[in-house]
């Protein structure tokens, strides 16, 4: 019997159109996933890690299909009224359930297997982005398929099968499917998966549990590859061993257990709560007369449509939202939103939480809603669309006088209500989070953005899916088509590289938001984009209404008027918004897409790279007038620059480059020179001097610059003008001399795509000395609307009001480079004075929380640096708040002025006095740049960042060690070591040593902090400071020092063993892995230690190493001072004498070795 | 006045559900008789604007309701053959909702009519219970209540008494009889007795065609004196069918009786008996199919 049942089941399944369509759809999905495999820059598309990620994504996508297939397989008896017939046969539970399950498994794995095949084919096609595909290894696909896809799909299948079997409700299956997605999102978030933005790393203890509890294996996957470098990522297979194996076994067991649960609790009897069984005893018709029944004459005039609409929505809502499934969905959403906020906001960088402000909460909430929302829409739209038919009430409703437009619009509006409800849950969680964090809810109205920027897009998408459901013959096909719409929009965008974000489905406006501006970066785009999508949805709605399925008909006569209204309104909205977008992007201002900018940069390099060595003048002084009009998102600059010839020979011509990007237009005039060539495409102008510019001779340049911005095009965090907060790194956008190397593309795959050679980076030590750079002086007058003010570099010389605008003039006489910026905002100020320097923090009113911390940190750092390194040459030091749109950096330091991002400093929650003082630390770092990068301006060659970021890492640690001591420093070092090892896994090229570092950031910051820590431990703080003071004195501007100049001073007379260790960090790339394998007590005071040492990188020969250890008591407090043992690479056994009360041993307590995993450096002392 | 002319409908797959149906239906209850698959439900759904005919027209008081279906919906009360109800929604709430859909916008009037209909269908006592929990009879009463909402001028009831016990069925017929005095009711059934009791006019359908149309008593009258009856052994039935136009065979008190259509006494043993509407029905079917239909009833 069982065999016959299975045969019937398979025959039934494969006769379904749904299955045939799903097979094709999943094959295409797999193909698309394969074509878009990506695991980071320079990682092969067919790298095992990329394939593993793709297989995880495939299993995630399959959950959607599972929800459909499971419903079709398990719930079809109920749907088609076959239950009484089937359940009264003598078939056993086991035969019945196992045949259904087996049929389902065969179908699902056929579909998923074909998707996997699609992935193989898609993955081998050439990459559209120029990325290397890498060698095809079927073993990598098979390994990932059986390690991730098969167990994940089986888990999803078991869960949904169990839920469908026990609950016998389609919505319960959908909710279970959504729960799987939520678990995936949370798992990805915790495991620092690249699919989730701004994920955080867990602590070691949390990681152990999470690795096992993640049902999809995402966590163990990323744990396995966390510290893999580029070569490993491109070559190593994901191994099914250790934690990953344990995880897979656990969840396969869970899957089997779910099947057993389904078998154990399944009954052929109907559930008491199904509502199908009559529960009311009949009372016969007692009154059998309708004589005298008063008819009520219907009225179909004005108001009828509205009344029926309201009634229909109310009844539909009652049907859809009542009951356990929606309650469960709500709870799941609450859990997800709560988790997201707790993780993303409550555990910020270095454990410092973000302030519980709506402006920060909203972008965090948008992320999961963008993933989850479309899924909820697809599931619930299916149920809504087929509501009457599923309950066999369609005949009565369709034959009633209700207008067809009501039948359509009521469902769409009902879905809108559901979306509204889900977003309200998110708002509740956000507001609740604010209350729990004690922040109060002063910005509740800000949450309206969630309704607008998430709710409307989902609602428009629901319109499309509803239309598809109307056109297709069953709801499962409709759901598949809805999902297909999502994938298709994404695939088309990827294939054609559409830049405009609103050409996606659903269109979610970018979540960037700032309290300073009171809104987002591209709210204008959001408005027009949503109008466009509204128009499209209305047009689709009109088509669906025209062909509305009412009764058995497709054409609904009598709906021409509403159809016409919908079509006209939709078309108007579509055409108007598309017209505005076209005008804004093509006529109002030329908006270049990201792709166009890349092509422009490549073209610029190809055309002008050869001119890079041509001698050019340098700027001496600038007198700049900037008028900023935030309401109109534009500014204009009128400037006169003095320049000089720094070379030993005369210059006959010079080249000015003003990249005509981002709505920028510029007119230049050079006194005593004639414009010879103009390349308007690249903004390059060549001037020929009437008489050659002699060495040391000066000339004058006049230019007028206008910049008009809009939210169209990609956001530039260094250049935006918005009401309430503008930030302009102006020196990058004014005319600059010669070839601008910073415009070159640095991404090698991208360069390959444009036929460019690999990027040359930052040059090398053999580069000739840069031309002498004179001090640059700047007088900048900026005007802003009344109520706002502009802030820039130097001392504020004058400010006044005129014509309803606020003017400020800043002057600074000595800047070591032509590098300046300004901001405009509605500012308040807090000030203090340190050693005759005015220290001020300019902030948006309402952002006072960390202002005093900043003042204290700036004052303390300034005082420390002046004491130990050298005098600060200016009278002002100001910290200026800029909007969160610049969150790519925390703060950036110019001479006298530090621009600090609101979300990275001002809106950090530093109320907990025991928490890490992140704000102070960043401020100290940026103040350090006044010396390192400011007064000391390194030569622009390899090793540049060692004299800027590495020394600023030291600067902050020097200040903080004095304030907070070793405990905080140890915490910081552990954190940055973890970051270093994490980020080096994404290195596009081989990591350079610190003394030759170029644009790479993570070695400069994270390894740099460790290197300077080691120098401090070996030399002592005072010595390091003295040597830095000497370096500062010898190499301050106008000198252009190199990293080797610093090392020469820093490493002078350092004893050999320590020098070797320091050179390992500064001149080589060496890492360690220390492990205390055993700590067995021999006698009361003697402990046997088994120590394992691994050395990676270009280390010196295998030499004896001095390794410190320390005994800890029960509470992990140190007992005495660290002791030293001598070890070698490999295993070393030693016996050490421990103090009384020692409970555990830790090796390398002072963090003298750079290693990824310190969790195995400590071990409890055990008996042998 | 409902005027149906040359109505045809063929489903995908080639099933010809309606084949040139022409009917004029006036005030009162019009019965549609026919075996399963005769096309009754297709005709009803077409009149109720739930599907479109391939050919032909349906005029309601002169208005083409195929072209303007919303016009018939404004005067229609429809009780389908097999209808479900929304779960979790009370009778009162669902009836109120249907009243809104039928254009009863005044809340007081709507409430009054809903109350009245619930009372008259004896559902007032369980008005707050979910309709999904009702028994079959209660659900049918709810169905007729919703069909009567507003001021329907045309009521279509498709096999409304299927599944009801005899008592409930009687009461239901009485209700239909009362409401059918001033409006048009189209009643579809395959129970001949229902048509005889209720309908002022009836049509017999089979194979999508109207085989017979007229007042039930007139239809019966045409057969008077031509129906003969006798007992017969069941084993001999095939032979009787070969020899005569057997209209039906029926077990009565354990004995099998056959009814035969003939202008004269077919042979010895046959007795004349009064013609019934059922005889007219079977005679029409037999004429259509070219053979005598057999109806077994125990």
UniProtKB/TrEMBL annotation, chain A:
Signal peptide: none annotated. Residues 855-1052 form the Peptidase M1 membrane alanine aminopeptidase domain. GO terms for molecular function: metalloaminopeptidase activity; peptide binding; zinc ion binding. GO terms for biological process: peptide catabolic process. Gene3D superfamilies: Neutral Protease Domain 2. Keywords: Membrane, Transmembrane, Transmembrane helix. It holds the Pfam family Peptidase_M1. It comes from the Bacteria. The chain crosses the membrane at residues 21-40, 46-69, 101-121, 141-164, 171-190, 249-266, 319-341, 408-430, 450-469, 525-548, 560-583. GO terms for cellular component: cytoplasm; extracellular space; membrane. This is Peptidase M1 membrane alanine aminopeptidase domain-containing protein.
TrEMBL record, chain B:
InterPro entries: AAA+_ATPase, ABC_transporter-like_ATP-bd, ABC_transporter-like_CS, P-loop_NTPase. GO terms for molecular function: ATP binding; ATP hydrolysis activity. Keywords: ATP-binding, Nucleotide-binding, Transport. Residues 2-232 form the ABC transporter domain. Transmembrane segments: none annotated. Pfam families: ABC_tran. CDD domains: ABC_drug_resistance_like (cd03264). PANTHER family: ABC TRANSPORTER, ATP-BINDING PROTEIN (PTHR43335:SF2). Belongs to the ABC transporter superfamily. This is ABC transporter ATP-binding protein. The lineage of its organism: Bacteria, Pseudomonadati, Acidobacteriota, Holophagae, Acanthopleuribacterales.
């Amino acid at each position: 019997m069982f065999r016959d049942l299975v045969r019937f089941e398979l025959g039934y399944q494969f006769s379904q159109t749904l299955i045939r369509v799903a097979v094709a759809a999943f094959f295409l999905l797999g193909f698309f996933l394969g074509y878009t495999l990506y695991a980071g820059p320079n990682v092969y598309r067919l790298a095992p890690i990329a394939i593993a990620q793709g297989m995880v994504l495939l299993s995630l996508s399959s959950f959607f299909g599972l929800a459909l297939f499971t419903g079709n397989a398990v719930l079809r008896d109920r749907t088609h009224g076959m239950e009484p017939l089937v359940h009264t046969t003598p078939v056993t539970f086991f035969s019945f359930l196992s045949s259904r399950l087996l049929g389902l498994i065969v179908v699902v794995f056929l579909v998923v297997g074909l998707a996997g095949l699609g992935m193989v084919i898609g993955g081998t096609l050439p990459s559209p982005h120029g990325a290397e595909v890498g060698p095809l290894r079927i073993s990598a696909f098979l390994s990932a398929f059986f390690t991730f896809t098969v167990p994940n799909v089986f888990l999803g299948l078991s869960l949904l099968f169990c839920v469908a079997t026990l609950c016998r409700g389609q919505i319960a299956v959908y909710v279970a499917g959504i729960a799987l997605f939520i678990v995936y999102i949370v798992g990805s978030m915790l495991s620092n998966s690249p699919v989730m933005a701004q994920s955080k790393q867990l602590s070691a203890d949390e990681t152990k549990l999470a690795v096992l509890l993640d049902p999809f294996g995402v966590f163990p996957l990323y744990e396995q590859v966390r510290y893999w470098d580029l070569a490993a990522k491109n070559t190593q297979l994901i191994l099914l061993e250790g934690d990953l194996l344990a995880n897979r076994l656990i969840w396969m067991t869970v899957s089997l257990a779910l099947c057993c649960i389904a078998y154990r609790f399944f009954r052929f009897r109907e559930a008491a709560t199904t509502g199908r069984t009559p529960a009311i005893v009949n009372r016969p018709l007692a009154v059998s007369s309708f004589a005298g029944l008063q008819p009520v004459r219907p009225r179909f005039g004005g108001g009828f449509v509205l009344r029926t609409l309201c009634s229909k929505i109310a009844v539909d809502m009652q049907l859809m939202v009542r009951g356990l499934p929606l309650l469960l969905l709500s709870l799941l959403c609450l859990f997800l939103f709560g988790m997201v906020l707790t993780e993303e906001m409550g555990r910020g960088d270095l454990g410092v939480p973000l302030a519980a402000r709506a402006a920060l909460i909203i972008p965090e909430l948008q992320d999961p809603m963008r993933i989850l929302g479309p899924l909820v829409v697809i599931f619930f739209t299916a149920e809504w669309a087929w509501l009457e038919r599923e309950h066999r009430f369609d005949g009565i409703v369709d034959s009633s006088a209700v207008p067809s437009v009501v039948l359509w619009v009521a469902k769409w509006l009902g879905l809108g209500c559901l979306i509204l409800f889900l977003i309200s849950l998110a708002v509740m969680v956000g507001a609740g989070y604010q209350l729990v964090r004690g922040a109060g809810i002063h910005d509740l109205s800000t949450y309206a953005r969630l309704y607008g920027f998430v709710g409307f897009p989902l609602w428009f998408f629901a319109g499309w899916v509803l239309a598809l459901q109307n056109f297709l013959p069953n709801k499962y096909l409709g759901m598949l088509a809805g999902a297909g719409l999502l994938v298709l929009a994404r695939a088309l965008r990827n294939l054609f590289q559409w830049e405009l974000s609103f050409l996606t489905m659903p269109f979610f406006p970018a979540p960037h938001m700032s309290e300073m501006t009171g809104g987002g970066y591209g709210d204008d785009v959001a408005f027009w984009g949503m109008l466009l999508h509204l128009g499209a949805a209305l047009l689709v709605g009109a088509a669906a209404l025209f062909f509305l399925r009412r009764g058995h008909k497709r054409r609904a006569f009598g709906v021409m008027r509403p159809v016409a209204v919908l079509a006209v309104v939709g078309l108007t909205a579509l055409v108007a918004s598309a017209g505005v977008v076209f005008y804004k992007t093509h006529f109002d201002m030329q908006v270049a897409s990201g792709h166009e900018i890349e092509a422009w940069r490549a073209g610029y390099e190809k055309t002008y790279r050869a001119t890079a060595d041509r001698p050019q003048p340098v700027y001496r002084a600038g007198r700049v007038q900037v008028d900023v009009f935030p309401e109109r998102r534009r500014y204009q600059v009128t400037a006169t620059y003095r320049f000089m010839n720094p070379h030993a020979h005369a210059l006959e011509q010079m080249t000015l480059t003003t990249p005509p990007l981002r709505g920028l237009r510029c007119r230049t005039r050079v006194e005593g020179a004639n414009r010879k060539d103009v390349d308007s495409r690249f903004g390059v102008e060549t001037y020929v001097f009437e008489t050659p510019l002699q060495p040391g001779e000066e000339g004058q340049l006049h230019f007028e610059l206008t910049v008009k911005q809009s939210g169209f095009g990609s956001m530039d965090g260094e250049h935006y003008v918005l009401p309430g907060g503008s930030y302009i790194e102006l020196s990058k956008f004014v005319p600059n001399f010669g070839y601008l190397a910073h415009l070159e593309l640095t991404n090698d795959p991208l360069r390959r795509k444009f036929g460019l050679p690999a990027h040359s980076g930052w040059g090398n030590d053999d580069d000739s000395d840069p031309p002498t750079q004179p001090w640059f002086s700047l007088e900048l007058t900026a005007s802003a609307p009344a109520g706002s003010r502009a802030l820039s570099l130097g001392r504020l010389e004058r400010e006044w009001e005129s014509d309803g605008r606020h003017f400020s003039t800043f002057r600074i006489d000595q800047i070591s480079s032509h590098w300046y910026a300004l901001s405009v905002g509605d500012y308040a100020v807090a000030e203090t004075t340190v050693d005759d320097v005015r220290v001020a923090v300019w902030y948006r009113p309402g952002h006072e929380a960390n202002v005093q911390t900043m003042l204290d940190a700036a004052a303390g750092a300034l005082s420390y640096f002046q004491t130990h390194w050298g005098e600060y040459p200016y009278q002002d030091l100001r910290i200026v708040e800029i909007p969160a749109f610049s969150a790519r950096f925390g703060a950036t330091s110019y001479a006298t002025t530090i621009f600090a991002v609101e979300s990275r400093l001002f809106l950090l929650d530093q109320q907990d006095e025991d928490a890490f003082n992140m704000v102070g630390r960043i401020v100290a770092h940026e103040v350090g740049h006044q010396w390192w990068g400011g007064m000391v301006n390194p030569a622009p060659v390899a090793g540049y960042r060692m004299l800027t970021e590495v020394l600023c890492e030291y600067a902050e640690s020097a200040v903080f060690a004095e304030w907070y001591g070793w405990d905080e420093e140890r915490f910081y070092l552990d954190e940055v070591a973890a970051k270093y090892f994490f980020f080096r896994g994404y290195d596009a090229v081989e990591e350079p040593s610190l003394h030759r570092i170029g644009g790479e950031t993570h070695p400069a910051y994270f390894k740099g902090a460790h290197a300077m820590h080691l120098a401090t431990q070996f030399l002592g703080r005072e010595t390091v400071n003295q040597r830095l003071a000497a370096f500062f004195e010898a190499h301050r501007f106008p000198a252009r020092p190199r990293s080797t100049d610093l090392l020469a001073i820093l490493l002078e007379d350092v004893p050999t063993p320590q020098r070797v260790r320091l050179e390992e960090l500064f001149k080589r790339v060496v890492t360690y892995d220390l492990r205390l394998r055993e700590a067995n007590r021999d006698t009361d005071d003697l402990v046997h230690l088994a120590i394992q040492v691994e050395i990676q990188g270009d280390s010196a020969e295998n030499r004896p190493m001095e390794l410190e250890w320390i005994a800890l008591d029960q509470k992990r407090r140190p007992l005495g001072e660290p002791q030293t043992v001598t070890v070698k690479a490999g295993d070393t056994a030693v016996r050490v004498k421990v103090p009384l009360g020692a409970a555990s041993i830790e090796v390398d307590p002072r963090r003298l070795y750079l290693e990824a995993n310190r969790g195995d450096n400590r071990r409890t002392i055990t008996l042998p | 006045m409902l005027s149906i002319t040359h109505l045809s409908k063929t489903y995908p797959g080639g099933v010809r559900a309606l084949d040139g149906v022409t009917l004029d239906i006036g005030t009162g209850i019009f019965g549609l008789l026919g075996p399963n698959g005769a096309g009754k439900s297709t005709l009803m759904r077409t009149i109720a604007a739930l599907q479109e005919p391939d050919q032909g027209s349906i005029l309601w008081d002169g208005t083409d309701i195929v072209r303007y279906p919303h016009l018939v919906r404004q005067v229609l009360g429809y009780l389908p053959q097999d209808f479900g109800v929304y779960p979790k929604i009370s009778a009162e709430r669902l009836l109120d909702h249907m009243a809104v859909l039928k254009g009863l916008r005044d809340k007081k009037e709507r409430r009054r009519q809903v109350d009245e209909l619930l009372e008259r269908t004896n559902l007032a006592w369980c008005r707050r219970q979910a309709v999904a929990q009702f028994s079959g009879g209660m659900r049918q009463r709810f169905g007729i209540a919703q069909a009567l909402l507003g001021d329907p001028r045309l009521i279509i009831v498709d096999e409304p008494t299927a599944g009801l016990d005899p008592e409930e069925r009687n009461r239901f017929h009485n209700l239909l009889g009362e409401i059918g005095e001033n409006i048009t009711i189209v009643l579809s059934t395959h129970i001949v007795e229902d048509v005889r009791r209720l309908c002022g006019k009836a049509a017999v359908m089979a194979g999508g065609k109207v085989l017979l149309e007229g007042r039930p008593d007139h239809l019966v009258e045409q057969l008077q004196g031509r129906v003969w009856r006798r007992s017969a052994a069941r084993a001999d039935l095939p032979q009787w069918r070969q020899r005569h136009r057997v209209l039906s065979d029926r077990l009565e008190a354990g004995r099998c009786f056959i009814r035969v259509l003939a202008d004269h006494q077919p042979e010895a043993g046959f007795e004349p008996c009064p013609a019934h509407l059922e005889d007219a029905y079977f005679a029409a079917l037999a004429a259509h199919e070219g053979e005598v239909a057999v109806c077994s009833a125990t």
